[in-house]
């Protein structure tokens, strides 16, 4: 059997969620809410699962949903993408990322990623015949621009950034994005900006998007996910915004990988976005309240909390508890001995940081789940 991904096994998310189910632990590992989407969105979907909406959608996505995406961009970044040439809907952000990489990367090309990085970038690059150059983020999970510069070669085709950042919750500044542009400007390098947590930015900060800088936007694929924004990760619906020429390259691949997204889901999302703009406007404070509650509940624990400025993830330093365990061992110990499923972050690195003692917990949970989890975590000395 050909083995195109010899070093890749089953993803950490699948393994930890399975383990949580087997051990009946609280599952704070894989990132997903344990509550439903707003009832109006579920009602809207019900309407579209009846007759008349069960066939293929347009390859590029339902026009009404593309329009809603374009309007959110106009509101936030002051320009209106052309829905005919610059916006596409996909069955999830993961599929969008995969197609962008397949569209751009040729055998021998290099893609720069920043570790710790989301687990799909590297395998998708390998399947295209390329190779990821992993540049470590700094200890506060910001980009070291000198190291980035040094990683560029004449084979560099693409750089992938992801802010708000999974797994750390770090955010990026507009100044950093300007620096990114200045560095790549002389080269033929494009940007894939994974912004699936674009609305989950806390403490009064503004999300900095590649779409906020016209010259960077012209070179970028911005990727979003309705799953994160509307508490429907299982609906697997995402989007891409890119300049017309880039969008053309993307669509060539998308039409043969996905062809289109799911029809009734696109209708329901478009209606809901149009009728309930308050959902998006309140999302940051909704999740900030969860972060604040979780952190407050964990205050008496022996874990040290790292700052989370975005996403729905919180990093915990456990060095004061079990410094003898690496993070994979720690997550096993936590799930088996204390009924908490977490994600060890070393799996997101090409070369894990020696002595790093961090696990990731997802706080997209009800107050009751967060309280129960915190109670268990506070009992660990
Ligand atoms: N990128 C990042 C950084 C993510 O955390 C996720 C969600 N797991 C995705 C992409 C994938 O999003 P989707 O579920 O829409 O495919
Ligand atoms: N993005 C989710 C996380 O980081 C997992 C998605 C998946 O399971 N592929 O937890």
From TrEMBL:
NCBIfam families: PRK09082.1. One of its GO terms (cellular component) is cytoplasm. The keyword Zinc-finger does not apply. Transmembrane segments: none annotated. This is Aminotransferase. Belongs to the class-I pyridoxal-phosphate-dependent aminotransferase family. InterPro entries: Aminotransferase_I/II_large, Kynurenine-oxoglutarate_AT, PyrdxlP-dep_Trfase, PyrdxlP-dep_Trfase_major, PyrdxlP-dep_Trfase_small. Keywords: Aminotransferase, Pyridoxal phosphate, Transferase. Its cofactor is pyridoxal 5'-phosphate. Residues 25-377 form the Aminotransferase class I/classII large domain. GO terms for molecular function: kynurenine-oxoglutarate transaminase activity; pyridoxal phosphate binding. PANTHER family: FI04487P. The keyword Transferase applies. It comes from Alkanindiges hydrocarboniclasticus.
